[in-house]
Design goal:
10 strands, binds pyridoxal-5'-phosphate, Rossmann fold, 6-stranded mixed β-sheet, alpha/beta, 367 residues, 12 helices, 2 domains
Amino acid sequence: MITILDTVGHSPLVQLRNLVDSDRYDIRLKLERTNPGGSIKDRPALYIVKEAECRGWLRPGGTIIESSSGNFGISLAMIGAARGYRVIILVDPKTTPTNLALLKAYGAEVIVVTEQDDSGSYHKTRIALANKLHREIPNSFRPDQCFSPLNGEAHYKGTAQELFEQCGGELDAVVLTVSTGGQVGGFSRFFREHAPNVKVVAVDAVGSTIFGGQAHSYLLPGMGLSWTPTNIDNLNRIDEVYKAPDEDSFMMCRMMAKHEGIMCGGSTGAGMVVALKLALQGESSKKQRIVCIASDNGERYLSTIYNDEWMLERNLDTTLNPTHLLERVSRLAPYSINPIETANYKPELEYLLDSPSRQYIADEAAG
Ligand SMILES: Cc1ncc(COP(=O)(O)O)c(C=O)c1O
């Protein structure tokens, strides 16, 4: 008999049929919503918890403490419920009522961090408080998604390998959206080692500074950070970086629901804008096989992206005009084709925020 955690992974790969002519364009989505916690984050969350159990970092009766405004926290809450751990998740005022309700339904304790950091977001203040609680609460464990190398390793050993086998080794490009860098770090390492001809394309939000640039606020959920995360340990493995605008991404989400019957989250809309751009520009040569990783489910965003009032209050276009969307897509240009040039690594952060990840590894090495 299997348990709920045995259902993590093995997500389907589906081809788009209506938004583009599938005889000319081969765009596929890997639907990570089929994971039991509803997103791709179940994979690194489960991988990290299992590793922590094996290495003795997480013991029975322990407490998992994490900073997350969305999917990673929900995955940990689900896993904690299934495995009998106390779970504390640090969120911020931008966390949606749906995500808060999910965290609470799984029995997690939720702390809302209201102090902004120097970039105007809550990442650093949330992480610093999570690390402080970890020092204070005995038998607690910090998955530390922004700094733990196990995050990228979960995708390197799991998701990327699974996709490659599913495609029978036949693909030209993979499009990944970025926040902690777990996905793009793990996938880029896998493809450089196993299929170097596959183009690895990273998509950040306009306004985020993972790959440098000008910081400003943005609405895309689950994307962006104010530094290059250490899970992207080698920017040379990434071929191209795009920055997706909020409006184009949300339009794409709504278009996908209406024309493909696929409800997807904002980051998938952003990834799809870029996947479509890559497909259209490859038109003259042979048909490109492009896969976009669809990280979560649109039902989490019914009161935002799929709500006309919410969109109009933010001056976002709610009309569904395929020609209009195609025009926007064709205007999009890569932000960088040499991401190392605009790297925004901040190695001091790991120490300033007192991240426990290095300490875990050091303690283990010391026996
Ligand atoms: C919906 C969604 N898309 C994309 C990402 C980016 O994934 P990663 O953190 O592996 O870079 C996240 C991360 O939180 C997410 O929740």
